[in-house]
Amino acid sequence: MTGGRFIALEGGEGAGKSTQARLLANALTARGVDCVVTREPGGTPGAEAIRALLLGLDGEGWNPRAEALLFAAARSDHVERLIRPALAAGKWVICDRFVDSSRAYQGGAGGLSDADVRDLHRIGSGGLLPDLTLLFEIDPETARQRLAARDVDGADRIGGRDAAYHAGVAAAFARFAAEEPGRFARIDANGDPATVHALVLAALAKLAGEV
After folding, report:
1. What is the CB neighbour count within 10 angstroms for residue 143?
2. Residue 57, pLDDT score
3. What is the pLDDT of residue 151?
4. 69-88, pLDDT tens digit by residue?
5. What confidence score (pLDDT) does residue 4 get?
6. Beta strands, E only, the chain
7. Which of 51, 132, 165, 206 could bridge to 41 as Cys pair (CB 3.0-4.6 Å)?
8. End-to-end CA distance of the chain, in Å?
9. Using an 8 Å Cβ cutoff, are 10 and 98 in contact?
């Protein structure tokens, strides 16, 4: 395969995105694809510094507007310094969260309008969208069990919000996928990592043939 591709992994807490990003990168590398695995917020030194401000447990946190601005600033640096250069070099970029997380967390669940979040993305990152967005959907109880095992030292500031907030996030993601079926592939994330990975590879067939 040639040419850069941009794949984002989206979904709620405990859906297994980080594990699947790693498995996907390993699979693509084995097939001769040059990959970059990154995350949001983060991916560059500046964006990682903003991540610490957003997700740290100390302090009272940010209002939704300030939160959205910080995410947009981190994303702008990430896109400018890592994502666009990697794509221009012909690499595949696999990103754990991108703009649809801002739309779901600060928009759908946080109360900001989708238009406002999209405007921030247009200003900060030129409106860049993934070639394919993999949406990992998981049963709330399964997610709760996974998070209990993972977050033994406590959840981060956003992950620790209440069940109603996270239900709003899930509903927003589902709405985005229904509205843009050409960009989204919905993945049942309730299975074991190998089963979910097989679903990911099948979804990628729509982007670039068999991988």
Report:
1. 21
2. 57
3. 61
4. 999 999 999 999 999 999 99
5. 92
6. 5-11, 35-39, 92-96, 132-137, 184-188
7. 51
8. 9
9. yes
Domain CATH code at residue 148: 3.40.50.300
Closest to 159 in 3D by CA, of 174, 172, 146, 173: 146
CB atoms within 10 A of CB 146: 16
Tokens representing 128 are 């860049």
Nearest to 167 by CA among 144, 196, 199: 144
- Closest Cα partner for 96 from 26, 185, 21? 21
Percent helix, strand and coil across the chain, each to the nearest 5 = 55, 15, 30
CA separation (Å) from 62 to 42, 56, 57, 87, 167? 18, 11, 12, 33, 20
Q: Which domain holds residue 106?
A: 5-206
Question: Rounded to the nearest 10 degrees, how much is the dihedral formed by the CA atoms of 173, 22, 202, 87?
Answer: 80
71: in domain:
yes
pLDDT digits (tens, 9 = 90+) for 87-132: 999 999 999 999 999 999 899 888 899 999 999 999 999 999 999 9
Structure tokens at 103: 């739309």
Cite the DSSP H helix spans in 31-139: 45-55, 64-78, 84-88, 99-102, 114-125
Q: How many domains does the chain have?
A: 1
| Interacting residues of 38 by C-beta distance below 8 A, sequence separation 6+ | 78, 82, 83, 93, 94, 95, 96
Q: Is residue 211 assigned to a domain? A: no
